[in-house]
Amino acid sequence: MKSPSGYFQRAARAALLPVLFPVLWLGTACGEPSQGDTREAPVAAQEQGASDANLYDSFTRANSTTGLGGLEQGSQTWSYTPAGTAWGINSGRAYLATDDATWDDHYATVNATANARVLVTLASLGQYSGLTFRFIDRGNCWKLATDTGLGRYFLTRFLGGTQTFPLQINQAPVAGDVLEVRTSGTRIDVYINGVLKGGVNDATHQTATRVGLLSSQDNLARFDEFKVYTQVGTRDATLQPFRSDSVWNLPIGKGALYADTTDPATRDFIATSIGGMTINAWANWDQYSHPITLASSSDPWATVTDYNDSSRSGAYNIPASATIATGSDKHMHIIHPTRRYIDEAWDTTRLSSTSYRVGRHHRIDLYGSGLGPQNGVRAYGGSAVGGLIRAWETTPTHPNYTGKIQHALAVAIDRVQLYYSSGWSGYDANGYGTAKGYVWPATEQDWGSESTYKGQVPMGAYFAIPPSVDINAQGLTAEGRMVAQALQDFGAYVTDATGATWAFYVEPTAPSSFVSNLRRDAPKLRSLLRRVTNNSPSTPNGPGERRVPMLPDLAPLP
């Protein structure tokens, strides 16, 4: 059976064409990888007590002016740099008790691991105070520190006594701020109060293992709730990509609010017919899906030419047998030999084993968020593999099979369901679509949406099965229940447009038995979904405690 999504051929974003001709382009719009993670991406932090941290200190012991003593958890004693200084405890807070009469940094550290998650609460502010990590000595370390005079935080690198500032955060420090740094290989990410503020790729001191507190001569800073998680991530980015706090992997919040069926977006999303058009519920698999191929360094080095925008062209290892999806979309997605990146292509033609012609091409960081702008070949502006039901999670004989789908799902709907509000197809200087109607986390919508979108569902809208629904009472197959559980625990995002259908996406190598039962249950699953009305950058996937535990962090690169 041909998937209904084949009735519309997708067209690429015509980034270099004048906006005067929008009606010539009716397909999805997409983007290239962002150059850094400087845009804020909120994180839903789990409540964590002493017991779940590998190293922990709340400093709730007797006051002292001569030392911090030992960690409450982790069997270590604090060490101090430079010699001759002393740290102490006052009213359950750590502080620099005796400085060395210089404005140089003063450190209290313990041994952890190079790849770690380090948190501390700044109970009271001091100038140039915060946390340190990958610490060797005063002249060779990293730190995340306040600058109360400038009203900012700085990520600082010391190398051979010279300091540089790879990242500054334009947020005024406030007493009670929770500072957090996560390191994995060359990647360093910075969080303030659970919100990602940016990150850098830097191999400096990559193997250094000490972490701790830093303070300056003003002696004003007070520290509380020091935590270190030293467990190295275990999740395989080639099987389940993107950060644990990406909306693709973040469980739904228990504070999520669900619309009812009178909500215009929910009404159109679950509709079986609109304007006389039947909307079939389906799962794209054997056609119009997203095949993923792993490349090795011995595979042919191939050029990939983007015929719409030459700046998006690339060259990399591509197996001569790399799968190109059947159907007019012709997606081809190649994971690099390094396992760090995936190159996504749309409308792919293999000219030879070393030459490909595509309508859209982008390189995506598997260790990033998977979101745009300009970060994938789907209409919403992000990665095509975000929300894809993978073969490994549907194949019981696969060594990583768990019987669960632990991520949000991607859903495509017809253009008669999608919402357009204003503007003409095009892109602003930051790569966001100028035809409006989309909502976060989408950063754009289909080219030509101003003439083809007729409904009330914004591109990027978030839907989920409410917790009040008893999944086991819906008459679903085992495969349908697996997908229903994912829709209740993680939800689904509208990422693309189809023709006369409402569709999930399943990797083409998934078992046919899984797809057959999912297609049987798709109409029922569609009917159970409701729009989450309080999904936003500050409350991703809804606010509150997560419905199910967070996923493990990604394993370091091999």
Describe the 3D structure.
- Keywords: Signal.
- Residues 1-31 form the signal peptide.
- Residues 532-558 are annotated as: Disordered.
- Residues 532-541 have a biased composition (Polar residues).
- This is Lipoprotein.
- There is one protein chain.
- With 558 residues, this protein is mainly beta.
- Among the domains are: 55-230, Exo-inulinase, domain 1 (Jelly Rolls), CATH 2.60.120.560; 264-289 and 379-531, no CATH class.
- Helix content is 7%, strand content 30%.
- It has four helices and 32 strands.
- It has helices at 264-269, 449-452, 478-489, 512-528, and strands at 41-42, 55-57, 79-81, 86-90, 93-98, 106-111, 117-124, 130-137, 140-147, 152-159, 162-169, 178-184, 187-192, 195-201, 210-215, 222-229, 273-274, 277-278, 280-284, 292-294, 301-306, 314-317, 332-335, 341-346, 349-352, 355-358, 360-365, 409-414, 462-464, 492-498, 501-505, 530-531.
- A seven-stranded antiparallel sheet has the order 1-14-13-12-7-16-2, with no helix packed on it.
- β10 (152-159) and β11 (162-169) form a beta hairpin.
- α3 (478-489) packs across α4 (512-528).
- The longest helix has 17 residues, at 512-528.
- The chain is globular, with a radius of gyration of 25 Å.
- The two termini are 41 Å apart.
* Biggest beta sheet attributes: 7 strands, antiparallel
Radius of gyration: 25 Å
Tell me, what's the shape?
Answer: globular
Specify the structural class.
Answer: mainly beta
Proportion of β residues? Answer: 25-35%
Distance between the termini: 41 Å
Q: Got a strand count?
A: 32
Give the % helix: under 10%
Number of helices: 4
Keywords: Signal
Organism: Pyxidicoccus fallax
Protein name: Lipoprotein
